[in-house]
Design brief:
The chain has eleven helices and no strands. By secondary structure, it is mainly alpha-helical. Helix 1 crosses helix 2 and helix 5 packs across helix 6. It starts with 17 loop residues before the first helix and ends in a 20-residue tail after the last helix.
Length: 240
């Protein structure tokens, strides 16, 4: 997985891992100009290498952005797995399954806020790049991609007795849409919530989804405190 936390600056590329360096350069350019605002040649220029050197690793810009998306999927999966490992309570219980759903949703939102350039590429048109259908094992250190993690968490709700199998059908779409919608609003600045408010929002989303799937209120969790009034009106943004 590429380490893109400190992408090489223009003209200072000295190490041998050009492929990962190009992924880092692409992330920098996405953050500055958007995914449409640069070319593969410009990514090479950021590193002070020739376009020919870049083309030895990526056939075109779409392939480079596909690599960015793959790297992001691996990072997101790792964050979700990490938060799942911290869920308290006995595995297999309804409470643990419900808390696991909240954990993967929270990891998704926080990843999007910490890595907005990754997030925008991962769910842009480059997510259709053929390589996305076969994520390399070295990217998925836990063995599961983010979607499979969500599937497994929802299956655990059924196995625990919290959700009936009939209600489980298609729940991936509802769960993903709710969390992705919140993440997108936050990343795009249409909704601005502080850390505490994001937790409250995730509690609200999780409870709404679980109740919709037929969970008992005692499993779905307590009613969330109301999110700050300004955050309910996108026209009146609130700073974190």
């Amino acid at each position: 997985m590429a380490d893109t936390r400190s992408a090489p600056s223009r003209g200072h590329y000295h190490h041998g891992d050009l492929r990962n360096a190009l992924v880092g350069a692409a992330l920098k350019l996405v953050a500055e100009r958007g995914a449409e605002g640069f070319s593969l040649r410009e990514a090479a220029r950021e590193l002070g290498v020739s376009p020919a050197a870049a083309y030895r690793h990526f056939a075109d810009k779409a392939a480079l952005l596909g690599a960015v998306a793959i790297d992001g999927m691996g990072r997101l999966a790792a964050e979700m797995e990490k938060d799942l490992s911290r869920v308290p309570g006995p595995a297999g219980s309804a409470a643990h399954a419900a808390a696991s759903l909240a954990a993967v949703g929270g990891a998704y939102v926080e990843f999007a806020l910490r890595h907005p350039a990754h997030f925008r590429v991962m769910f842009g048109p480059w997510c259709e790049h053929p390589a996305m259908d076969r994520l390399p094992p070295e990217v998925l250190r836990g063995g599961r991609d983010p979607y499979q993690i969500l599937v497994d968490v929802l299956d655990a709700l059924v196995a625990s007795g919290a959700v009936r199998a009939q209600a489980r059908q298609g729940a991936e779409i509802a769960a993903w849409s709710m969390v992705h919608g919140l993440a997108s609003l936050l990343v795009d600045g249409a909704l601005e919530l502080g850390a505490r408010e994001r937790v409250q929002a995730m509690v609200l989303l999780g409870r709404t989804l679980l109740l919709g799937l037929g969970c008992r209120p005692s499993i779905a969790g307590p009613v969330a405190d109301p999110v700050d009034g300004d955050s309910r009106h996108p026209s009146r943004k609130r700073r974190c």
